[in-house]
Amino acid sequence: MIKTFLKERRSWIVLFVCLQLLVLFSGYIDSAIHFMPLLYIVFLSALIFAIFLCFRFHKETKFYAALSEWENNLDLTNIAEAESPFEKIIEESIVNQTVLLKQTVSNNLVSVEQEKDELLAWIHEVKTPLTAMHLMMDRLEDGPIKAQLSLEWLRIHYLLDSQLHQKRLPFMENDLYIEETDLKTLLFKEIKTLQTWCMHKGIGFEVELEPASVLTDAKWLAFIIRQLLTNAVKYSEASDIVIRSFKAGDRSKLMVQDFGRGIDPKDLPRIFDKGFTSTTVHHDNASTGMGLYLTKKISESLLIHIDVQSEPGVGTTFTLIFPQKNEFGAITGV
Q: Mapping DSSP to helix (H, G, I), strand (E, B) and coil, where does residue 84 land?
């Protein structure tokens, strides 16, 4: 701050030095003026000027130092009170801009919240005709047309479900209910939804659950498993998907293993990034890159660690590692 202050007052300092040199030069060329008294006066003037600079540095930099340390968080309580006229002009400008920004942020938050509520309401409204369509398709005779309609219905259903959870994600903590969740009920419900797609691709399931339940939020865990199963079916052909739960030490684990195309090693660190699809399969237009991103975000809130192992052409294994019971105090406030 001292260096900045001296640079700001550079012109005044140069003017003072020039004036003192002028006085000394006048005493040097005029023999009628004694040079030593002038030198003494210049020394006293320089000393007084240095003291004056120190005083002004403390007084003038207090306001600007507070500005430089301001965190730009729209909180004006940490800014020093303006004293000089120029400082008051700056303070007034900052206050006006801050008030305007706060009003803009408030309006944007209201707009975003309203848009979210409208979108959620629209999603729930769309689910009603989707349910009716599903009931109508159940009455159709089995055949290629019914299979194709079921696949398209399933795709719309999952897209809406993903959008619904994406909008709820910022407020997920308010919606958590930690309880003993029956894995068998949850898994078979998701597998049943995928039944038509699996039959179309010749995919079966091998399920072995020990333990049969975990402590978590059932609704959000269902979304995680839904995404993992969807990816497993999407990238597999005529093979089984292995689902197994087991104990490893004092933690429960749930493994979802497929024998599909696998993931390229260079893509593994990025599969949970928002919008990332693949660097090897560019024609995969059906993928949005949001499923695994949401899965990761939700698992972090549930304190679930996800381990991924994959080999191209061999398959992929996702393992959910559930937290211990005493770790849930961090998200339940207990």
A: coil
CA atoms of 286 and 267, how far apart (whole Å): 18
> What CA–CA distance (Å, rounded) separates 27 from 42?
11
Burial class (CB in 10 A: 0-12, 13-18, 19+), 110: exposed
Please give the C-alpha separations between residue 63 and each of 90, 184, 257, in angstroms, as whole numbers.
10, 65, 62
Euclidean distance between CA atoms 123 and 120, whole angstroms: 5
DSSP 101: H
CA distance 15 to 108: 52
Tell me which residue of 179, 249, 257, 176 sits closest to 213, measured CA to CA. Answer: 179
Domain with CATH 3.30.565.10 in the chain: 179-332
User: 251-270 in b/e burial notation, b at 16+ Cβ within 10 A?
Assistant: ebbbbbbbbbbbbeeebeee
Q: pLDDT tens across 186-234, in order? A: 999 999 989 888 988 899 999 999 888 999 999 999 999 999 999 999 9
CB 226 within 8 A of CB 294: no
The total of other beta-carbon atoms located within 10 Å of residue 225's CB is 22
320: left (phi over 0), alpha (psi -120 to 50) or beta: beta
Residue with tokens 């407020």: 171
pLDDT class of 334 with cuts at 50, 70, 90? very low
Alpha-carbon distances of 332 from 75, 148, 179, 248, 322, rounded to whole Å: 30, 44, 11, 24, 15
In the chain, count H helices and then E strands. Answer: 10, 7
Least Cα distance to 19 among 1, 6, 38 occurs for 38
179-332 classified as CATH 3.40.190.170: no
Please provide residue 312's backbone torsions phi and psi, each rounded to the nearest 5 degrees: -55, 130
